[in-house]
Write a structure and sequence with these properties.
Distance between the termini: 46 Å
Number of strands: 20
Shape: elongated
Oligomer: single chain
CATH class of the largest domain: Mainly Beta
Order of helices and strands: HEEEEEHHHHEEEEEEEEEEEEEEE
Number of helices: 5
Strand content: 35-45%
Helix content: 10-25%
Radius of gyration: 26 Å
CATH topology of the largest domain: Jelly Rolls
């Protein structure tokens, strides 16, 4: 019986390891540093007010990490702030020094107490709760807009707030494996490489937003990292009504719905091909956020990347209107 249990345990362990996907992450730390590398994870565990969610890592695009506190920290902060009103200067100084030596969790605790009905500002101006809060914010490079919630971006369309249940991330970098505590991380970008076995990824291009001439979020960041020489496959379907084009309904291949004009043929060719210039309604793509090289994908595209970087997609139109309606569903795979 013990042997059977042992074999079962090994099988379950092997399955668990296999289920962990190695994803590429870019971490923005609270001290301003950027760290990139890979980590093994299959999902994000997010505790919300509506229950616990297990979000598959392939659907996660980014995370903004807040700073949560707990009852122990809240109670300690409250007691120390109250002592800042004591007539004994030495006690005030000692309490203040203890406050500014606390970890990052003290920041939301101090802020919350200051704005609560329990707070009575000290009549002394030498050691104050506001000054302690300012020192801690400077120490940990935290602004006034910090949230106590972790916010997960899903499929570039939705966000969900809650608590991401982890204490650290083990990140494999070119300098070795780094173990980075949660409290030191401000933001995480989840990236995907064409050679990580993630398979096809699907995105929605909104007519009211993802237009190439829209300078505010017109290009959708896919999170897919491509390398020079890799094959890119893009297929798209759907319909967008362009208010900017007299309400005409366009399809990803550039044809107008209801028009007698023959549909534009699918384009297949190299990324560098000069004859791949887009027409209105086409799905277009580029490699790198600052790249000015915008090329046609249309409804079906097979090509080769001539550069390495992040893949961005959009819908071609020279005039942007937020009154556009409809959307395209775009599937992308990189081999």
């Amino acid at each position: 019986m013990k042997k059977i249990f042992g074999v079962l345990a090994i099988v379950l362990f092997a399955f668990n390891v296999h289920a962990q996907n190695e994803v590429e992450l870019k971490l923005t730390l609270r001290d301003g540093n950027l760290v990139s590398g890979t980590s093994k994870m299959s999902s994000i565990s997010l505790s919300t007010a509506y229950g616990k969610l297990e979000i598959p890592i392939k659907n996660v695009t980014a995370l903004d990490l807040g700073i949560s506190t707990d009852k122990t920290v809240n109670d300690k902060v409250a007691n120390l702030i109250k002592q800042l009103s004591n007539s004994n200067e030495q006690l005030r100084r000692t309490s203040y020094d203890e406050l500014i030596k606390m970890d990052i969790k003290a920041i939301p605790a101090i802020s919350e107490f200051i704005y609560s009905a329990k707070y009575e500002p000290s009549t002394y101006v030498d050691y104050t709760a506001d000054a302690a809060l300012s020192e801690l914010q400077s120490k940990y490079n935290v602004g006034n807009d910090i949230s106590d919630k972790d916010v997960v971006s899903i499929d570039y369309e939705y966000t969900m707030g809650g608590t991401y249940e982890f204490t650290k991330i083990d990140l494999k970098t070119e300098y070795g494996t780094l173990s980075i505590p949660k409290e030191k991380i401000k933001h995480i970008d989840v990236l995907f490489s064409g050679d990580n076995g993630s398979g096809d990824m699907t995105f929605k291009l909104l007519g009211s937003k993802h237009i190439s001439s829209n300078t505010d979020g017109g290009w959708l960041k896919t999170g897919i990292m491509v390398k020079q020489g890799q094959k890119i496959n893009i297929t798209a379907s759907g319909e967008i009504t362009f208010a900017s084009l007299s309400g005409s309904k366009y399809k990803p291949d550039g044809s107008v719905a209801g028009s007698t004009t023959a549909a534009i043929t699918d384009y297949e060719g190299d990324y560098n091909a000069g004859n791949a210039y887009p027409t209105y309604g086409n799905v277009v793509y580029k490699i790198g956020e600052t790249s000015s090289q915008m090329l046609k994908a249309g409804a079906k595209f097979n090509g080769v990347a001539s550069a390495s970087g992040m893949l961005f997609v959009s819908v071609y139109e020279t005039v942007y209107s937020a009154s556009n309606t409809g959307s395209y569903t775009v599937k992308i795979s990189v081999k």
